[in-house]
Amino acid sequence: MAPESSHSFSDVLKALEERGRVAEAFAYKIYVLEYLSYAHQLDEEEVLKLPIDRINTLLQVPPTPAKYRGWDTFYWGGAVIK
C-alpha cells in the first residue's frame, strides 16, 4: 500500500498557480469544490484542507442518491404525528 500524500488540495492548487497554470488550477478548483459539495456535502474549507489522496478517493465514490439525502437527520416522531 502506497503512503498517503501529505499535500492538501490547496497546496496542489497553489503549485499549479506558481507554475503559471492558473486557468487549470481554477478549473480543478471549481470542478472539485462543486462536485464534493453536491455529492458529499463538504464545504469549501473542508475540501481545501483535505489531502489530495482523499480527494481522489472521494471523486471515485458515487454520491448518495438524492432521495436518501437528509434521512440521517429525519425526525420520525414528526412524520407519525402529521
- Form type: elongated
**Total beta strand runs:** 0
- Taking all residues together, what is the mean pLDDT? 81
Q: Give the amount of beta strand, in percent.
A: under 5%
| Number of structurally distinct domains | 1
What structural class should be given to the helix and strand makeup?
A: mainly alpha
Tell me roughly what share of residues is in helical segments. 55-70%
Largest sheet: none
What is the end-to-end distance? 52 Å
What does this structure look like?
This protein has 82 residues and is mainly alpha-helical. It has one domain. Helices cover 61% and strands 0% of the residues. It has five helices and no strands. The protein is elongated and about 45 Å long.
Structure keywords:
82 residues, mainly alpha, 5 helices, 0% strand
Secondary-structure blueprint:
Layout: H1 9-18, H2 22-40, H3 44-49, H4 52-60, H5 76-81
Helix pairs in contact: 1-2
